[in-house]
Amino acid sequence: MLERAVTYKNNGQINIILNGQKQVLTNAEAEAEYQAALQKNEAKHSILKEIEKEMNTLVGMEEMKRNIKEIYAWIFVNQKRAEQGLKVGKQALHMMFKGNPGTGKTTVARLIGKLFFEMNVLSKGHLIEAERADLVGEYIGHTAQKTRDLIKKSLGGILFIDEAYSLARGGEKDFGKEAIDTLVKHMEDKQHEFILILAGYSREMTHFLSLNPGLQSRFPISIDFPDYSVTQLMDIAKRMIAEREYQLSQEAEWKLKDYLMTVKSTTSPIKFSNGRFVRNVIEKSIRAQAMRLLMGDQYLKNDLMTIKSQDLLIKDETAAHEKTSQPV
Question: pTM, whole model, 2 decimals?
Fold first, then answer.
């Protein structure tokens, strides 16, 4: 039987010691080996293959994709251990998502709900989205009741709380602390009946945890969602355009790329909404294209599909972004 040890290096290579002989694999080679192993057991791992197919439609997010595979492997192997009568460790799967707006946190939460439902970890796999106003009440006792009601709706699925750090903003006398205490209690009492995901800006979430030392250990899985590069944002834009059966003219593509480079270099990361910003630009350009075609009475197929440079109303979008992207 072959024995091997695997270690990871910072330069994108993976060391594999096989029967005492050291090999060095790149990430691409390791991924190919991983895919080959899955291929041999395709029916057995059909759930993961389906989720991976959906994950591959998402630009970037390499850490998240790696985490999902690790979670799947842990659940799958635990199921095999149970079949052999071995002890099965029950880990809490509550998570922390850290990143700026528009980096895909909600989308990933939905994918995780689907995966956990398919693997019988969650009985429903649905997603309940919430923010401070949904948990914090107006008088003593109201907050605990609102929080319990949300948790009850989330049983069998995921409770996703965005901008979770806002629960700690008011200090000791604020009702947000009551919401945190209620969440912590139910995370323990019902830790295998629902999954809690707290999400928000990286810096604010780190500060939030420092104010609540007991929380850190209750979230064994923490995933960072980095900002998209200009190349990734262009990839997102092209995918959005293609999904809607449109295309960018060469001039429009150049204009959009130049614009994104300018916005990225002049806007604070916490004020830039990443994929959401791109979606707003694309949707506005489609409306502008429709008006242009209507005024020009042009309806050939290529006309209907092509977004031209003049359809990218960039100045208007910049002003709108400055108004709506202030941190809460």
Answer: 0.75
CA–centroid distance for 74 within its chain: 20
Residue 137 pLDDT: 85
Q: How many helices (H) and strands (E) does the chain have?
A: 14, 10
Buried/exposed code over 222-258 (b: 16+ C-beta within 10 A; e: otherwise): ebebbbbebebbbebbbebbeeeebebeeebbebbbe
Which strand ranges, in their side-by-side order, compose the sheet holding 95-99?
127-130, 158-161, 195-200, 95-99, 221-225
Q: Tokens for 284, please give them.
A: 């506005």
Closest to 165 in 3D by CA, of 104, 218, 209: 209
pLDDT of residue 41 exceeding 80: no
What is the mean pLDDT of the segment spanning 63-89? 88
For residue 221, give the 3-state DSSP assignment. Answer: strand
Joined together, the tokens standing for residue 292 give: 């242009």
Asked if residue 256 lies in contact with residue 296, where contact means CB atoms within 8 angstroms, the answer is no
- The answer to whether the CB of 98 falls within 8 A of the CB of 205 is yes
Query: What b/e string do you get for 80-103 counting C-beta neighbours within 10 Å, with b at 16 or more?
Result: eeeeeeeeeeeebbbbbbbbbbbb
First to last CA, the chain: 57
d(CA 179, CA 174): 10
What count of other Cβ atoms lies within 10 Å of the Cβ of residue 159?
26
Closest CA to 226 of 59, 76, 26: 59
Crossing angle between the packed helical segments 46-55 and 105-118, to the nearest 10 degrees:
170
Q: What is the pLDDT of residues 300-321, one digit of tens each?
A: 999 999 999 999 988 655 545 5
Q: Which of 87, 96, 110 is nearest to 220 (CA)?
A: 96
Cβ neighbors of 76 (< 8 A, separation 6 or more) are: 45, 48, 119
Torsion sign across C-alpha atoms 207, 194, 76, 29:
negative
Question: What is the distance between the alpha carbons of residues 324 and 311, in angstroms, rounded to a whole number?
Answer: 22
Mean pLDDT of 191-215: 86
**In contact, 328 and 166? CB cutoff 8 Å:** yes
